[in-house]
Design brief:
The chain has 338 residues and is an alpha+beta fold. 55% of the residues lie in helices and 9% in strands. It has helices spanning 3-6, 36-43, 65-74, 88-101, 108-121, 127-134, 138-148, 171-183, 189-196, 200-211, 219-222, 230-241, 258-269, 272-275, 278-290, 294-302, 309-337, and strands at 16-19, 52-55, 60-63, 78-84, 157-159, 165-167, 247-248, 254-255. The strands form three sheets. The chain has a four-stranded mixed sheet. A two-stranded antiparallel sheet has the order 5-6. It starts with a helix and ends with a helix.
């Protein structure tokens, strides 16, 4: 399945008007079928109905059953249509995406059933991609995958929302990255990622782990899923001891204790080199905005609407990667000056 077929339905091409009796109605997405009240409301519209989306090989409606029924109810001879090609399985994915983002909202049962069918026909797609397509949370799709995993072909890679294929087992890529770094310590992160077939963020993590004298593959990737042992916790404690005194904060997260963070921020605010420069003040504002306690982070997470959860999660991960890159640059400057 191409990235194009997973994208938004084609809307930049002019519609083709086709006879209404040449298009076949289907209940691809809605478990309970169409809604008569919605059909009646559309039929009372005096303007032309928006174009429907039709699967060219079968002439089945992918998106627009209500509009098609409304056109027939009004006695229209033709209706505007845009066509898509590809397999019926790909057409279903496109139908789900189209119905989840416009028109009469899909019910939770519709979206759950759609995710189950996509998992069966496209098991190589990532949970995040399927979640964004069906309008569900990533955790819900992951739970559906786990319930049906015995019925599916087990794959070693998945296609993400960005169109990139990533391995489910990260250990091999991390080991290739560590070998590349050992052979040429001066390689850039992008070069390491390209050689090992991993993301830039993973390449950065491997390099940082090697600098701290740790194994390039975290314990959670070296053990079967769900089998974490004391060695995992021991490595986390050892990692904390090797990063300038970073310890547990007592709220389930690792990092500088809250009291020390507040004290450091106060000291930074009084530093003239930061207070009296534009970029310095920008840094202080960013640090202030991101210095929250566990309860505040929980409230932020709870405030995110479920339909936006995949987007917010991606943006948060991007921000985390940017902060991690900043930390690496600052530490590198310290080592160079030393």
């Amino acid at each position: 399945m191409s990235a194009t077929s997973l994208g938004a339905p084609p809307s930049d091409t002019p519609p083709t008007f086709v006879p209404v009796d040449q298009v076949t109605e289907t209940c691809l997405v809605r478990v309970a079928g169409s809604c008569p009240d919605h059909v009646s409301a559309l039929a009372q519209c005096r303007d032309d109905l928006p174009p429907i989306l039709v699967h060219r090989p079968t002439m089945q409606v992918i998106d627009g059953v209500h509009r098609l029924r409304a056109a027939r109810l009004r006695g229209d001879a033709t209706i505007g249509a845009r066509f898509v090609d590809g397999s019926e399985e790909d057409a279903f994915v496109l139908a789900v995406r189209a119905n989840a983002t416009q028109g009469l909202p899909l019910t939770l049962a519709d979206r759950t059933a759609a995710a189950s069918r996509i998992l069966a026909s496209h098991p190589h797609l990532s949970d995040r991609l399927i979640a964004s397509t069906a309008g569900l949370s990533t955790k819900t799709v992951s739970a559906i995958r786990q319930r049906t995993s015995g019925e599916m072909t087990q794959l070693h890679t998945r296609l993400g929302r960005d169109g990139k294929v990533r391995p489910l087992d990260a250990s091999h890529g991390r080991m290739r990255a560590s070998q590349a770094i050992t052979k040429d310590p001066g390689l850039s992160l992008r070069a390491i990622a390209r050689i090992a077939g991993i993301s830039v963020g993973t390449a950065r993590d491997v390099r940082e782990r090697m600098r701290r004298g740790e194994h390039p593959v975290p314990p959670r990737y070296r053990l079967p899923a769900g089998q974490h042992t004391e060695s995992d916790a021991a490595e986390k404690r050892a990692s904390g001891n090797n990063t300038g005194g970073r310890v547990s904060t007592g709220d389930g997260s690792a990092g500088t204790p809250r009291a020390d963070r507040d004290r450091f921020l106060l000291a930074l605010r009084t530093d003239p080199s930061l207070r009296f420069s534009g970029i310095g003040r920008a840094l202080l504002r960013l640090l202030d905005a991101n210095t929250l306690d566990a309860a505040q982070w929980e409230r932020l997470a709870a405030a995110v609407p479920q339909r936006w959860s995949p987007v917010v999660a991606d943006l948060a991960m991007d921000c985390a990667a940017d902060w991690s890159a900043l930390a690496c640059r600052v530490r590198e400057q310290l080592r160079v000056s030393a």
